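**User:**
Make up any protein.

**Assistant:**
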Amino acid sequence: MAEDPKDAAPARPRGGFFAKVRRGLFMTHTEILEKLGTAVKQGLGIDESVLESLEEALLSADVGAETAGALTDAVRQRASVATRKDLPAVRAMLLEEIEAVIAKAPKPPARPAVPLFVTFLVGVNGSGKTTTTAKLAAREKAASRSVLLAAADTFRAGAIDQLQTWADRLELPVVRHREGADPSAVLFDALSAARARGVASLLVDTAGRLHTKKNLMEELSKMRRIAAREVPGAPHETLLVLDATTGLNGLEQARRFVEAAGATGVVLTKLDGSARGGIVLAIYRELQLPVLYVGVGEGVDDLVPFEAAEYARALLGDDATH
C-alpha cells in the first residue's frame, strides 16, 4: 500500500533554517501528500487522475498555476520510465523537478566592495517590513559593520517610532523626519549622513504601499534615482518583504515591485505559520527572484538565511530524498 500521508512524521530538524520553518513546511507537505495519497495506489501506475491530483495539490500550496502546470508536465514526461510507479516515485521525481526550478533561478550577486552599501526594503503594509529592517540591521551589526537606519516610511502612523524603538534596542542611529514628511528628503539626509559618518551599511525602511497605487510606486522610482545620484550603484540591494500567508496575491505584488522598485531579492515572512510554502517556487520560477531570508517570528534573531536545498526536501517531507 502507498504510504498514508497522515502517518508521516514531521521532518527532523537539520539546522537553523529547517528548525525555524519546520511547522509551516510540514503543513505544506502534509497537504500535498494528503491529496496525492488518495490518488496513488501501489502498482497501478501514474495515470492522469494522479497527475491531476498532483497539480491540484501544488495549486493548493500556492505554487501558482504556471509553475504547478510545468512541474506536473515534467512528472508526466518522466513517469513512463519510473521503476516504481507509486507515491514515493512521484515524490522523488517531483523533488528533482523542484530542485531544478531553484537551480535555474539567478543567484544573489556577491556583495560589492563599496564604501557605503545601500539597501531598500519595500512591500505592502502589514508584511513586516519595518521589523525586517531592524532584523537585517542586527545582522549587519553582528557582522561588525557600522549601520545607519533611515525612517523613510513617513506615511504609516507609528512607523517612525517603531523603527526608533528597534534602533534604541540595537543601539543604532536613525535618520528621521516628522510623520508625513517627504520620504525622498529623509533618504537624501540619510545618504548624506551615512557618507559623512563613514557608515558601511544604510538600511532604508520605505513606506508600505499597495502595488496598485501608481503614485506611491512612482515615489519608489524617484527614491531610486536619488540614491543612484548620491551614491554610485545605489541602491545596491532592494529587498521585497512578502507575507507568506497572503498566498498568490503576494506574487502579483512582487511583479509590480520588480517593475517599479527594481526588487533584487525577497524576504518571506511568516513562512513558519503558513501551509502556503509553495509560493517560494512561484517566486523563483515566474519572477526569477531569489529568496534571501525567511522571517519566522518577532525576535531580533528570527530572520534566517533561506536554504534552498533544505526547503525543497522539507516541502515534500524528510524522506523524499534520492
Observations:
- The CA atoms of residues 36 and 253 lie 30 Å apart.
- Residues 16-39 form the longest helix (24 residues).
